Amino acid sequence: MNRETVIGLEIHLQLKTKSKLFCSCSSDYIGATPNTNICPVCLAVPGTLPILNDHAVALAVKIGLALHCSISDNTRFHRKHYFYADLPKAYQITQYEHPIAVKGYVDIFAEGKEKRIRVHHLHLEEDAGKLVHPTSDGRLTGAAYSLVDYNRGGMPLSEIVSEPDMNSAEEVIAYITQIRQLARYLEVSDGEMESGSLRVDVNVSHSNPDGSLGTRVEIKNVNSLKSIERALEYEIARQNKVLDEGGHLAQETRLWDDVAGVTRSMRSKEGERDYRYYVEMDLAPISAGSEYVRKISESLPEMPWEKLDRFIKEYSISLEESLRLTEQKETADYFEACVSEGAPPIKCANWMHMEVQRILHDLSIGINDFPVPAAELGKLIIKVEKRELSNTQAKDVLAVMVEKKASLQDAVRLSGVSDGKISGAALEEAVKKVLDSEPEAVKAVRDGNDKKGAKVKFLRGLVMRETRGSADPAEVSQVVVSLLK
Amino acid sequence: MIKKMEMDEVRLREVLGFSCIGLPEEEYAEVLDRANSVLRMCDEMQELDSSNVSPFEWDVKKAPARREDSAVAWKGRDRFLDQAPVREGDFFRVPRIIAGDDVETEEEE
Amino acid sequence: MEFHKLSALDIAEGVKKGNWTASEVLSAHLQRIKKFDGQINAVVTLSEESADRDAKEIDKAVAEGRDPGPLAGVPFLVKDNFCTDGIRTTCCSKMLSDWIPDYDATAVKKMKEAGAVLMGKTNMDEFAMGSTTESSIFGPTLNPRDFDRVPGGSSGGSAAAVAAGFCPIALGSDTGGSVRQPSAFCGVQGMKPSYGQISRYGVVAYASSLDQVGPITRNMGDMAAVMEVLACADPNDTTCDSYKRPSFSEAALEGIKGKKIAMLTGYDAESMDRPLIEAIERAADYCRSAGAEIVEAELPITMKHAVACYYMVALGDASSKLACFDGMRYGHHADGRSLAEMYKRSRNEGFGKEVRKRILIGTCILTRGYYENYYVPATKVRQMIADEYAELFKNVDALICPITPALPYKKGLVEEDPVRIYLGDAFSSIANLAGLPSISLNVGFTEEGLPTNVQLMGPRFGDAGLLAFARSIENKAGSPQVADIENKGGCGE
Ligand SMILES: [Mg+2]
Ligand SMILES: [Zn+2]
Question: Which of C105, C209, C366 lies at the smallest CB-CB distance from A281?
Fold first, then answer.
């Protein structure tokens, strides 16, 4: 069978601006009291006019440039008409014939290889409000009415429309991940699917043996990477089944039902839908002139793929390691700060991959909240390099730095490894720890059932192991004995 | 290329849906008549050769600056909600909506 | 003192000099409105309390030696589609019959800042859709020059109020002639400035790319003064140009000696009311005697296609701008079992018949097929019309042509002959399509006392030059006087 699944995506990124796209309402709406981030403009009060947020334009240009698009120097907004409770003007101001950025691409890694996904265009548009469906039993159906909150209405979105260049769920996930990474590198969007700042509509069709594309089905309501994967799996199988049985696919919009694990037809009359697009004359044409674009392009940070290449070359680390380090800009920055202290890059990469990652995972925090400054970690790694600390000692020191938010110097002292020896209070602490973990042996000694001293010897051995041999054996014996009294 | 079009009952029904306006059947003829007289008035315009002309756009002498990105809270919020036709606490209330409902093609009962 | 006969500038000068107070001027005008508006129905809402307060503010400023502004103490009225803070703004529709905005339209704000005193709101065709001011929920306005005739529309209330001496200045909005046609019918001066000259913020839209705020006065001196107050950039309206405006008052004083003025030819003059043709000839004579050269000009594309083009653009946009009235956040609401039913019932009950019809036709124009075959060609023809004018104004400074093909209609014509009313927009809508400044200028009255106005057009943003041209003609023709409504309509003394 020569049929291949063909997938294209529309990704909506909520842009990180202080105010909405066409009015001065705050964009800080998550958790806000309903209908507090509203004003006459975003409520479509008669007489009001949209005023374009320049920063939103700049962010869209930024993404466009990063996606290798050409930026139009004369772009226009259109009105897209439909009546719905979340759309106060009964039209959405969006870009249609003259989007701000066109014809770009992004390279992804999937199924072990690199692949180029073309970007058809990127445009700016306003978000809709939110509907709430209260019910006594919490179900959607059965509610007597719905409620509308316009806090999100008018938020700036940048819609990135890909060409139908993906053929598998894995590629789709890789593409979304790449766009999300880019959004975060550029600091244009949080790119979080959970909070809705990154939303995806999936278009699935099949290529026919003659190369033409089959009927396109749009899937909405996929709110996580997991549900996209499941929805695609379901939809591809469904389409194959229909086609295998000689049936026809309807061009339609289908909603993903995450609970039932199926897609359901939402709008069967898709063909009749007529949005009556035409030019929004309340807004002057936007010119993002070459000077404007040049300034933005100069402000672009190093792209993730550029960083990846550089890390491999500059630090001689593996592709795999480099991918891990550059996944988040903050991680990459941390790594480089570490290295700039003079620590060997490969060792830094190792430490970040093993120790730092483990601690972040245990504390469930991000690298931004990691309490140890990169420079301190760098110095710690150097100490290991100079054999001032063993690897195990260094790990203990790091643990103290995290736990007590201590500086390297303090942590070394607190762990009692300052001159390679553990003694005094630190030793006492270690011994206490060992005794606490061996109540039976301790009880035996205290009850006088250790005539041969084997249990004491055993406990002393444990302490020596706990202190990694850095304590004076005589002192250890002395402390053990005194604490067992 | 030029297509002279009539507005007929089928399109009128669609348009009634798109514009969320109801019309008693006895008034169809009147509206169709008026619409078609406007369209007939426009037929000649269709025949004008405008292939090399781009759609109308304003000449701008000096374009106004775009808005700086700063947030300003609106003071009229409470008064506005008080005036709203159907309010429920902090919300505007509407009849029950089921996900995927299509307002514009909803069948007349 | 007969305050109602004074010009705005005379009133302001007297207030500033202390010859009289803003409060005196206000109460004289309010009294006149109360006495006579029962007959002509030009005013739909009076805001006496706020007007009183504003007038006292002006008097206080004068007493304290502060500058009360160029229009100090000048009472004015605005069409009921201008948002006014705390004063109901209905568009003369059931849809907004009890809606009170919490902000002033920029034009209203500018007038107040200039010292003018807002008295209230004037009657209009529902949502500015009409040419007779007969479709208002507040009932029709009568023409103060002849009570059997309509005042024109849609800013009929504003034009009638100025003609009746209710105020020396009123504001209207002009989408296809809505300021200038009623000015012609009521025998006053009305202007539609260049598109982008005055902020549209706060004016309830009919069609975004055609609407423009327009002042109505009884003389060009006042007109220039109002223009100077209103024309400026506005951060709330990015379609309002931010170029630096010249002084309109100074420009209006310049003569037109040596200027070249075109008279439009190539239209069917035979089908027009004769006195209006004579008025154009009269206006041309005045220009000639003021030292201008008269030439002829033909505008074939414009004359053939303007009305059709105008209807496509205006109705398409109106269907879009009036979609926000859904009974949910403001305005007339009707219950429904579904969202669709609520929308439909709210809109059906809230909008009048004419408005609903225009929305339907406009929506149709934007749907598939019609959009490609009618709407898009119209936007191209619009560009061709704009180009035709740009070409003309390379060679001439102004154009004289009719503003309406007919003298004021008798009441009720809109029911009898709607097509004739449509075609009445043929001359006035051109300026909106091409974004040009246009003045409806009175050059006298017929023997039976009906006003004869002509249209003057200039190049885009050539508003100042056009004012000079209109003022030169007015110097010879004389400016229209307040209508003699005391004696049931007439041309005045
Ligand atoms: Mg979109
Ligand atoms: Zn807002």
Answer: C209
First to last CA, chain A: 82
Write out the residue range of the structural domain in which residue A398 sits. 302-415
CATH classification of the domain holding A472: 1.10.10
Reported as a single tens digit per residue, the pLDDT across C42-65 is: 999 999 999 999 999 999 999 999
Among candidate residues A296, A319, A342, the one where a domain is terminated: A296
Please name the member of C335, C373, C422 whose beta carbon is closest to the beta carbon of B5.
C373
> What percentage of chain A carries pLDDT values higher than 70?
95
Q: Which domains does chain C have, with CATH numbers?
A: 3-299+385-487 (3.90.1300.10)
Residue C79 annotated as catalytic: yes
Among the candidates A256, A273, A296, a domain finishes at A296
Residue pair C284/C324 in contact (Cβ under 8 Å)? The answer is: no
A165 & A25 share domain: yes
Q: Does A83 touch chain B (CB under 8 A)?
A: yes
Beta strands per DSSP E along A237-390: 252-257, 262-267, 278-279
Residues of C in contact with A147 (CB under 8 A): none
A283 touches chain B (CB under 8 A): no
- C16, C79, C109, C121: which is the annotated catalytic residue? C79
Tokens for C452?
Answer: 């004869």
Using the Cβ of C203 and the Cβ atoms of chain B, whether some distance falls under 8 Å is answered with: no
Rg, Å, chain B Cα set: 23
Q: Are residues A69 and A32 in the same domain?
A: yes
- Separation of CA C317 and ligand 1 centre (Å): 21
Query: Do B64 and C239 touch, CB atoms closer than 8 A?
Result: no
> Looking at C47, C154, C155, C479, which residue is catalytic?
C154
For an interface test with B, the pick among A45, A136, A148, A292 (most B C-beta atoms closer than 10 Å) comes out as A148
**pTM of this structure:** 0.91
Beta bridge partners of B102: none
Could you give the CA distance from residue C320 to residue C315 in angstroms, rounded to a whole number?
Answer: 9
Distance A274 CA to ligand 1 centre (A): 14
Yes or no, beta carbons of C236 and A83 under 8 Å apart? no
Q: Looking at CA atoms only, how far is residue C42 from chain A in angstroms?
A: 22
Same domain, A264 and A343: no
Mean pLDDT confidence for C27-33: 98
Q: Which two tokens stand for residue A10?
A: 């529309």
C155 given a catalytic annotation: no
A262 and A179 in a common domain = yes
Contact B34 C460 (CB under 8 A): no
Token pair listed for B15: 């348009």
CA C302 – CA C426 distance, rounded (Å) = 9
Is the dihedral angle over the CA atoms C194, C198, C202, C203 positive or is it negative?
Answer: negative
d(CA A187, CA A202): 25
Residue type, C207: A
**What is the number of other CB atoms lying within 10 angstroms of the CB of residue B8?**
12
**Residue in A47, A85, A274 nearest the CB of C339:** A85
> What's the DSSP call for residue C372?
I
C438 contacts: CB under 8 Å, gap ≥ 6: C180, C191, C192, C403, C428, C430, C431, C455, C456, C457, C458, C466
Q: How far, CA to CA in Å, does C401 sit from each of A240, C277, C297, C434, C440?
A: 69, 9, 10, 15, 10
Q: Is residue C199 flagged as an active site residue?
A: no
More confident residue, B59 or A166: A166
Residues A36 and A79 in one domain: yes
Per residue in A24-57, pLDDT (tens digit) is 999 999 999 999 999 999 999 999 999 999 999 9
A387 and A268 both lie in a single domain: no
Chain B partners within 8 Å of A132 (Cβ)? 91
pLDDT at C95: 98
Largest CA distance in chain A: 98
> Is A282 in contact with C371 (Cβ distance < 8 A)?
no
Domain count, chain A: 3
